[in-house]
Design goal:
Structural class of chain A: mainly alpha
Largest interface: A-B, 30 and 26 residues
Order of helices and strands of chain B: HEEHHHHHHHHHH
Number of strands of chain A: 0
Strand content of chain A: under 5%
Oligomer: heterodimer
Shape of chain B: elongated
Number of domains of chain B: 1
Number of strands of chain B: 2
Radius of gyration of chain B: 19 Å
Distance between the termini of chain A: 26 Å
Radius of gyration of chain A: 19 Å
Helix content of chain B: over 70%
Number of helices of chain B: 11
Strand order of the largest sheet of chain B: 1-2
Distance between the termini of chain B: 48 Å
Strand content of chain B: under 5%
Structural class of chain B: mainly alpha
Largest sheet of chain A: none
Chain lengths: ~260, ~230
């Protein structure tokens, strides 16, 4: 475990050094992403200015949901950037490189790349949390915990969806749909949805664990919400590991010469 | 569209009124369908052009006996038309089942004309962002911000009619409203005066942004250095 943590830290340091090589692009993408998220949030300012309340869901709730969702999305991109490209890596036979090395394959693949714009999202998550006006030391602790658990669910969900590539042979389009579905549903007030839709958002597309549930947990501590988040994170992570390992047995190398930079 | 329907159904119910700022729930849903069709169906030319500039493959297009910008326009149109058609048909079936049948047929021709103008405006802005790769390392942030400006000032997620009056005025004095709100609004409520206003806005902004695009292309060509083959 300690060995793998050291390995992960080394990968993240390398990714950071690689990003710093293109400093201007890194900074412009980070700032661009913060502006992008901020401008997107204006929609909800306009909406709540006109309509005030959606079944008990108010403007301040949106700050918290945006904080968790953007933060988790950014953290996923920063630490496990290849979670967004796993399907392409499988299809193009680029797993050969990772399989030939004595490290956990999935961990190595996921952490081998960092998305520069992820830093912008991550930072925006904190900006949104502080802007909610609900800062408190214990609330901040819950925000960090919620962010980490939401990241585990999001990365696991991406791995689950893209592991299907082992069987389907293609998965790029599916990845795009999965990311869009998670982000879209996570950013809308959960009170909009009926019970069937809510069940889908907890089990099939677990967007509730990337938005409403951790946001509620940050507002006030309840054992049920922390329990639910831990079960979801552990469950989706276990399923992701299981499916990826199962899929690896079907993986066929293309014997192509690959260069990993 | 399902999420939109849930949102607006709750909102209309909460307001206790069938009509909000001149639009019904039915109008709002068909408005949003048109806006989504345009947004999701438009070609992602900015990324393609910037890639061509950065990896040098633009050189293979420039030595062909055709105009580079018109080539991109034709290529984008070819990519966009089938996608918009499919999106409209599938999304339309969904909206029909949730909110009722499509708007009156007399609205369609005016909306289609405005749709062409909106598509051309998107093309010009995308081209400008793509050509920005001549001077910037990465154009993705420009594209994100442009997209979000269309979301907000174009009225993509919320019809401009629901905005405060001052913001409507601001939005209508910028090009984004003519890229999204124009065709979507004409689709649900036909209005000759609005049509003339939108068409005039589109022509004006096409002249400005199209002019800037030609200028950016000419300047880009002067900066271009092609080494070897």
């Amino acid at each position: 475990m300690v060995k793998e943590l050291k390995f992960l830290t080394a990968l993240w340091k390398t990714n950071l050094a690689a990003a710093m090589e293109y400093r201007v692009a890194f900074i412009s993408q980070s700032i661009g992403m913060i502006l992008n998220d901020g401008v997107y949030f204006l929609i909800w300012i306009i909406f709540f200015d006109r309509f005030k309340d959606i079944r008990g869901w108010q403007f301040t709730d949106m700050f918290m949901v945006f904080g968790i969702s953007a933060g988790a999305y950014g953290l996923s991109g920063m630490l496990f950037g290849n979670a967004f490209n796993l399907a392409d890596i499988i299809v193009n036979g680029r797993l050969d490189y990772y399989l030939s090395l004595p490290r956990p394959t999935l961990l190595h693949v996921l952490a081998s790349q960092a998305s520069p714009s992820g830093f912008g999202d991550f930072l925006y998550g904190f900006i949104s949390y502080f802007a909610s006006g609900q800062f408190s030391p214990d609330g901040f602790g819950r925000f960090i915990l919620g962010l980490i658990l939401a990241t585990v669910v999001f990365v696991s969900f991406l791995v689950i969806v893209q592991s299907l590539t082992f069987w389907l042979g293609t998965g790029g389009a599916l990845t795009g749909i999965a990311i869009n579905a998670m982000v879209t549903f996570a950013l809308y007030p959960i009170t909009l949805f009926n019970n069937t839709a809510k069940l889908i958002l907890f089990i099939v597309v677990p967007a509730a664990f990337m938005g409403a549930v951790p946001a509620g947990f940050v507002r006030s501590f309840t054992w049920s919400s922390i329990g639910l988040m831990i079960i979801a994170a552990a469950g989706f992570l276990a399923l992701a590991l299981f499916l990826f390992q199962l899929g690896l047995r079907r993986y066929e190398s293309g014997s192509a010469i690959q260069v990993e930079v | 569209m399902v999420v939109f329907f849930q949102l607006w159904q709750v909102t209309f119910n909460a307001s206790g009124s069938q009509v909000l700022n001149g639009l019904t729930l039915h109008d709002t849903m068909w408005y949003l369908l048109m806006a989504e069709t345009l947004e999701l169906g438009r070609p992602r030319l900015a990324r393609l052009i910037s890639q061509q500039v950065k990896d040098g493959s633009i050189a293979y297009l420039l030595n062909k006996p055709y105009d580079f910008l018109l080539y991109q326009l034709a290529s984008g149109l070819g990519e966009s038309l089938p996608r918009m058609g499919i999106l409209f048909i599938i999304g339309g079936a969904l909206v029909w089942s949730m909110a009722g049948g499509p708007p009156a047929l007399q609205n369609w021709p005016l909306a289609m004309i405005a749709l062409v103008g909106a598509w051309l405006l998107h093309f010009c802005v995308n081209g400008l962002i793509g050509l920005a790769a001549f001077v910037a390392e990465e154009v993705a942030p420009f594209e994100w911000i442009y997209q979000k400006l269309v979301f907000i000032l174009g009225g993509m997620l919320i019809p401009l009619d629901f905005y405060p009056v001052w913001l409507q005025t601001v939005a209508k004095s910028l090009p984004f409203a003519y890229m999204m709100y124009g065709p979507a609004r004409l689709f649900v409520r036909s209005d000759l005066q609005l049509f003339v206003q939108i068409l005039a806005g589109q022509v004006l902004w096409l002249a400005i942004i199209g002019g800037l695009l030609s200028l950016a292309f000419a300047r880009g060509m002067r900066r271009l250095a092609i080494n070897g083959g």
